[in-house]
Amino acid sequence: MKSIFTMVLAGGKGERLYPLTDQRAKPAVPFGGKYRIIDFTLSNCLNSGLRKVAVLIQYKSHSLDRHIRVGWDILNAELGEYIASVPPQQRISEDWYRGTADAVYQNMFLIDGEQPEFLLILAGDHIYKMNYAEMYHWLLAKSADAVVGAIDIPIQDAHRFGIVSVDEDYRITQFTEKPAVPDCIPGDPAHAFVSMGIYLFRTKVIREHLIEDAREGTAHDFGKNIIPRMIKDSRVYAFKFQDANKKAVQYWRDIGTLDAYWEANMDLVAVDPQFNLYDGNWPIRTYQGQYPPAKFVFAQDYQGGRMGVALDSIVCGGCIVSGGRVQNSVLSPNVRVQDHADVRESILMENVVIGEHARIRRAIIDKDVVIPPHTEIGYNRDADAQRFTVTESGLVVISKGMKLHAAVDSSG
Fold this sequence. Notes:
EC number: 2.7.7.27
Catalytic activity: alpha-D-glucose 1-phosphate + ATP + H(+) = ADP-alpha-D-glucose + diphosphate
Helix content: 10-25%
GO biological process, one term: glycogen biosynthetic process
Distance between the termini: 61 Å
Number of helices: 9
Structural class: alpha/beta
CATH architecture of the largest domain: Alpha-Beta Complex
Number of strands: 29
CATH topology of the largest domain: Spore Coat Polysaccharide Biosynthesis Protein SpsA, Chain A
InterPro entries: ADP-Glc_PPase (IPR011831), ADP_Glu_pyroP_CS (IPR005836), GlgC_bac (IPR023049), GlmU/GlgC-like_hexapep (IPR056818), NTP_transferase_dom (IPR005835), Nucleotide-diphossugar_trans (IPR029044), Trimer_LpxA-like_sf (IPR011004)
Strand content: 25-35%
CATH class of the largest domain: Alpha Beta
Site (Could play a key role in the communication between the regulatory and the substrate sites): 58, 96
């Protein structure tokens, strides 16, 4: 793995996750209470033995850059090991990154400086577990110039993705973006291969293609431009996703919408979640804040209805549930739930305060929001929509630091 240089693309705007991406890049959005979305890709890198990782940042990158510096500065620079964020350098162009391939092309100086034999390109906004060493061994076994990570999904759902068509040897014959009639996997008519946005290249080969693509008026995208061109004159293979999550169903999520984000968090509080955070053989790392233990108080007053309790929930350090009830929810660090408050099926991010007698249901409340006493959220869609973002499913999203001055009258 020492011959691989890794670039993580983390510059996307994440517009469909707005307002969670109003003040941060999508890979920096909190997930699962204590993590950021990018932590899962970086943990995969570390667990796979990768020790040279450049995270290419761009839009609203401050919180992401800070998170990488304080949480991922864990390797030995004296040995040439690092996980580092790299902002746009404008060495080649004064433009923002025009596509995934252009982001790598504009940072060619990093590749030239490291002189790696192989280049691994990853997305920083997907949640999954994968040992990239298996992909590397597949490339060597096939004598491939490039390998594309692919996951098999039911063919009736495949038209929404980029489809990787392969022969019996898994050599890619065609790459098609969202075809009406997707090609099936040979011998498996019920499934199609979907690109995961994971690419492993022989550096000499991809370097030539990046330079050529930069001269042309393309979308400068790996899936749309680079891979289809490489198929014509290079050995390009699909690598079937080998899930390190150790569950019956494969887990790979592109958390693209607010509802998908909420559903993925709600999975984590299930009795048997699809995604396993508790596998000691595949740890998920992140920045660990110096918070005191979580605390639940007022159990002695349960007959009066005041009891601090959390059921089927994730509760992080620094939280105090003070006479309130939390159920099927995710609480990030330093959250307060006050007397007689009731929180159901919600995500509360860092420093959120839920006031006395407030009722919260199916909501995402971003950092530093104080919910006044007796406020009701998630019980009156029309009232919620007047002040907050509400999705088609009725999920309520409250922006980071939003000031609430009065309780919502649930009667309308």
